[in-house]
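thought: fold this chain, then report.
action: predict
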Amino acid sequence: MKKILKGKKILITGASNGIGMYLAIHVAGQGGEPILVSRSINKLRVIKDMIERKYDVPVHCYEADLSDDKMWKDVLQTIYTERGSLDALINNAGIGKFDAVNESNWNDINQMISVNIRAAFRSTYETLPYLIEQRRGHIINIGSQSGKMATPKSAVYSATKHAIIGFSNALRMEAEPYGVYVTTVNLGPVKTNFFQYADPTGKYEKAVQKIMLHPNRVARAIVQTLFIPKREINRPVWMDLGSKCYQLYPSLFETLLRSQFNKK
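observation:
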């Protein structure tokens, strides 16, 4: 079977678990060369060993706290120095904390802004000139259905994902003439450890567990889109339809779905 990513170097942030881990597996399964970034270098090494044994492709690991802009900039420069080039960037790292704004901790707010927005902007800013120079590449940004349809207790999280969607929409038009594709991935709840931090009570995860997406399926869909000019990946489809209707009739939807919106 033809390996569609053979020889392609794919940088994946937040790669130590969940969607990021499965992205690494599917990239390797298609012959690609995963370049993994996470705060947990030990977890990355376990993933690296597993992938290299199974798929016989090189995997590269880098430790970085993406909330530290200087550290992330330095690590990105190290990656380019050591790897020589990149073919695609997947800005997957993200965190959330579900609280009403008046009950929020500023450190949590700052952390979401730093990881979800600034780190993605930084990696794109550092990577894009190289992709433009080689006249090919793909940037995939993990957004959220929350970036299209905000709900109570997710004001800051929704705002960060709304920023990613807006950033990507403009970037797509800027990068297209150079052969660089930009795709956003807008997801509903995914069965990962995201909720351990977002809602330690477990109430929201329990409320949505029946509709949760599996990270393996999400990752497979993302990898299948690499180097294809696709605007968005939206999952689940019914939630995306709901977000589109919400854009047309926001007040009506906020009234009709008030109880659903307040499940956090």
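thought: worth noting. The two ends are 45 Å apart (CA to CA).
final: tokens above.
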